[in-house]
Specification:
Layout (H helix, E strand, L loop, with lengths): L7 E2 L11 H7 L2 E3 L4 E6 L9 E7 L6 H5 L16 H11 L4 E9 L4 H7 L3 H15 L6 E7 L2 H10 L8 E7 L7 H11 L6 E7 L5 E2 L2 E2 L7 H12 L2 E5 L3 E6 L5 E5 L10 H4 L2 H7 L24
Parallel strand pairs: 4-5, 4-6, 6-7, 7-8, 8-13
Antiparallel strand pairs: 1-2, 2-3, 3-5, 9-10, 11-12, 12-13
Helix pairs in contact: 3-10, 5-6, 7-8
C-alpha cells in the first residue's frame, strides 16, 4: 500500500518582536502531502532540550489553516478568522509553561472536511495513521509526547487514527475533542480508549454543549443521537471510572487522577455554542487541564485570556 511521504519546506523564523499575521503564516513550515492534505507547523522560535509536546490539530469543517490560526478582523476579513484563535491560544500556553516546547501541527485537507475526506479517500484511516507516525518521527529525537485534538469535523481525523490500529501507542498522551465527538462509536472505540487510559500519563479532554435543544432554520440542529451532547455523554459512561458532578451550568465527568475531564455545557437558552467553546479558552483548557497550570491566568468559558496575543 502506498502512503504519502512528508516533504517539508522550511522557512526561517526570526527571533524578536511578535510577527504580524501575514508574515507569521509565511514563516511557518508547510508540508504538501498526497491526497490533498496540507500540514502547517507552528514551532517555537527555538526548540531546546526541554520536554516537548506535539499537538496535531485537525481543522473544523469549512476552515482554512489561516482562519484557524486566527487574526484581528479587518473590515474585509472573513468572520472565520475570529472564532478559534489557535495561534494566539498556543502563544498563551507557551508563556504560561515556559519549560516545555509546544509544537502545533495544523491538519487541513482540500475538501475542508475530515469526515468527507475520509469517505472519499481509499484507505483513509491507514493514511491518517502513517501521517501521524511521520510527524512523530520528525521530532523523535526530542522524545516528545504526542497529542491529538480537533474541533467539529476534526474529531473524525482522531477517530480515523484510533480505528487504524489495534492499540494506541505509548507516546500518545492526550486526546482532545472540542465539540468533536460526532463519530464516537462504542463498538469501535470503547475498548481501545479504556485500555489506553489505564496508563497514568494519558488523559482525554472533551468539551461539548447541549446541541440537542438547538433549532436552526426551523429544524433540530442535530438528531437525537447524532450530536456531541449525546455522543460525549455516551463516551464518558462507556469509559467508566469517572466521577459525575453537576452544577447549574455544567455536567462534569472526572477521573480519579483529575487529569481526564468531560465538560458539557447545559445551554438552557438553546444557543449555538459550537465555535464559542473553542474561543472561550477551549484549546488552552485542553492543554492545561490536569496540570499544575490549570486555571493559571485563564478560565474556561470566560473571556478570552489570549487577547493580547492575537496578530493583526
Amino acid at each position: 500500500m502506498k502512503y504519502c511521504l512528508i516533504i517539508l519546506f522550511f522557512a526561517s523564523i526570526s527571533a524578536g518582536a511578535q510577527l504580524p499575521f501575514d508574515q507569521a503564516m509565511q514563516n511557518m513550515p508547510v508540508a504538501k502531502l498526497d491526497h490533498g492534505v496540507t500540514l502547517t507547523f507552528d514551532e517555537p522560535k527555538s526548540i531546546s532540550s526541554k520536554p516537548t509536546k506535539i499537538i496535531l490539530y485537525a481543522l473544523p469543517n469549512g476552515n482554512t489553516t489561516a482562519q484557524t490560526f486566527g487574526k484581528k478582523l479587518g473590515k474585509a476579513d472573513d468572520w472565520h478568522f475570529d472564532i478559534q484563535h489557535i495561534g494566539a491560544q498556543t502563544k498563551f500556553v507557551r508563556d504560561v509553561d515556559i519549560n516545555t516546547n509546544y509544537i502545533v501541527v495544523y491538519l487541513e485537507n482540500n475538501l475542508k472536511s475530515w469526515p468527507q475526506w475520509r469517505r472519499q479517500t481509499n484507505n483513509s484511516d491507514s493514511i491518517i495513521l502513517q501521517m501521524v507516525n511521520d510527524v512523530y518521527k520528525k521530532y523523535a529525537n526530542l522524545s516528545p509526547q504526542l497529542m491529538l485534538s480537533g474541533h467539529s469535523g476534526g474529531g473524525s481525523f482522531i477517530f480515523g487514527y484510533i480505528n487504524a490500529q489495534a492499540k494506541l501507542p505509548k507516546y500518545l498522551t492526550r486526546l482532545g475533542f472540542l465539540d468533536a465527538t460526532y463519530g464516537y462509536e462504542t463498538e469501535k472505540h470503547q475498548q481501545k480508549l479504556t485500555t489506553w487510559l489505564l496508563e497514568k500519563e494519558n488523559a482525554i479532554q472533551v468539551i461539548a454543549y447541549n446541541d440537542s435543544v438547538v433549532v436552526y432554520n426551523g429544524k433540530p440542529l442535530v438528531s437525537a443521537t447524532g450530536g456531541t451532547w449525546y455522543r460525549s455523554k455516551l463516551m464518558a459512561r462507556d469509559l467508566g471510572n469517572f466521577k459525575f458532578e453537576e452544577t447549574q451550568d455544567f455536567l462534569f465527568w472526572k477521573d480519579k487522577r483529575n487529569t481526564s475531564l468531560f465538560t458539557l455545557i447545559k445551554n438552557p437558552e438553546a444557543k449555538i455554542f459550537h465555535t464559542v467553546l473553542v474561543e472561550r479558552n477551549g484549546f488552552i483548557h485542553f492543554l492545561l487541564n490536569g496540570t499544575k497550570f490549570l486555571n493559571k491566568n485563564y478560565k474556561f468559558w470566560d473571556k478570552r485570556a489570549y487577547e493580547s496575543y492575537i496578530l493583526e
